[in-house]
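Hi X.,

You mentioned you wanted examples for the new student's onboarding notes, showing what a folding record looks like when two proteins sit in one file. Here is a clean example. The first protein comes first, with its sequence line followed by its structure tokens.
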Amino acid sequence: MQYPNKINKTYERQKVSHANRGMKLESLLNLTNDYYREINKAIIYKKPTPIKIVKTEISNKGIKISDAYFEAPSTLDYNGLYKGKYIDFDAKETKEVTRFPLQNIHEHQLLHMKKVLEHGGITFLIISINDLIYYLDGNDIINYIENNKTKKSISYSFIEENGYVIKQKINPRIDYLEIIDKLYFKE
């Protein structure tokens, strides 16, 4: 194909890497949470993944971790406080167009969501699918999985019917608290 400035580009099928899957959505959520903290609307942080450092190396650039492993399964990626309520959620992205694979939700994450709900907290997923970002409440996720034990995915139609589209803005980038206000803090 001929590009402007007479640059030739050959298209080849590239290997799909899942290493940084979800990073675009997480970046937008990190900006959103920074904004919420800056205006003192909520205190929500991304939790670090618990790792056990086994070996380090010292170089002129500093200390480098050369060997480590995951210490324990992580729960959900984000947690904090909003209007006196504990919030715990995860960001998920999929390239699928008709479904959200349940393999993206680990068993320990589902159990954690149940415990958050049992203690009166708010838990949910923010899912990027079909170029839209959805809020899907923890109650709906748990009910779906428990009532559809043989299913390996959540259909896109279920997400459309039960989820809430989060419109992207300048600030906050992904205003999920707007949906939480409608669901949990009706005035």
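Then the second protein repeats the pattern, sequence line and then tokens:
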Amino acid sequence: MLLLVGVGAVTALVVPPLLEPGAASLISDSPKEVIDQTWQIVFRDYLDINGKYTPEKWRALRRQVLAKSYGSPKESYEAIRGMLASLDDPYTRFLDPREFKEMQIDTSGELSGVGIQLSLDKDSKELVVVSPIEGSPASRAGVLPKDVITAIDGKSTRGMTTEDAVKLIRGQAGTKVTIQLRRAGKTIDTPLVRERIELHAVDSQVNTTADGTRIGYIRLKQFNATAAKDMAAAVKNLEGQGVQGYVLDLRSNPGGLLMASVAIARQWLDEGVIVSTKTRDGIQDIKRANGHALTKRPLVILVNEGSASASEILSGALQDNHRAVLVGEKTFGKGLVQSVRGLSDGSGMTVTIAKYLTPSGRDIHKHGIDPDVRAKLSLQDAQKLRLEDLGTSKDGQYRVAESTLVKQLKSANAVTRNTTYSPTSANLPAAVGAASKTP
């Protein structure tokens, strides 16, 4: 199964270990078994992106690492990381069992926890609640945005990263965790019971312009296992509210699952190629639209330098098929496909196995995708912009996207008016169109 790992993204799909039991038993030492599994995955499937890989070098490296003794899994993991480092490919990497489990959680669209979105305040370095997830234990307990988390189960959060805090807050459903909050100078101890929580990849709203145009704004945060379902629900909801066009925000979306990007592209595109992937053997897998678009209304996509991987597949597909206008800044430029493999001891790895091309055949790796309309967000403006300001009049790039969409709508309306049937003209195409409408 394939995925795309974007910049800073933690994404995964589990696949069975590559080796059959009989083959694995040839290496009797358990740490060496995992080393050999990793080696074989690269040997069979790796797409060399830097010219650092040859079968001969890789065979010699196998002899070296397997000739050594490893007293613990930790030692063998270091050997694997060193082996993969020789490829000079940041996307081909080893994940110990804990890291691999976290990757699975982050892309499953579900987790077991209390439903708090966290961030680290850039000035105070304190852990701050961005927002509780609606309907979660944290939401029901009255946790509010901007609450400062000062302790977790009695352990001070001073100096903690968001990753450190997440490890302490997540846990098995039904277990308890107590977080200490600071709000308006008061300290509040909040006991919570962890639950299975569904992570929604999409936020949406209706924005109304000064002239009354109703715009559906959709922000897609990542391409996880629920992203396509969440996108479909958002589009159907906005269609029901009578929007006239859409702004799809992919800014700082680092990517995720390949098939999620394909499924979402099919929701916007009725026909045409979406993406093709090419392995080291030159085999191309072409994904196409399937005639099931949810809307044909005009679409503008917001992108920036943090839009990577699956975000680039989606924006490239819709740009090349003339389905959307891209607004913002050049995208990151990550045109590689990774496969995620589970290993026999619960660890795993991501391995680069293919590159992808946009419908027009563009290889965007390290080049990125240029927007149709450039709209830069200054560092000063970016620092002022809060999460809740995205997709509002306070968001300079969104304002450009909105005005671009309004121009599209006006242009489309002008074309419609110009092709309206006039009985005094010989406008046959318009006459046929008018005659075919059902009152």
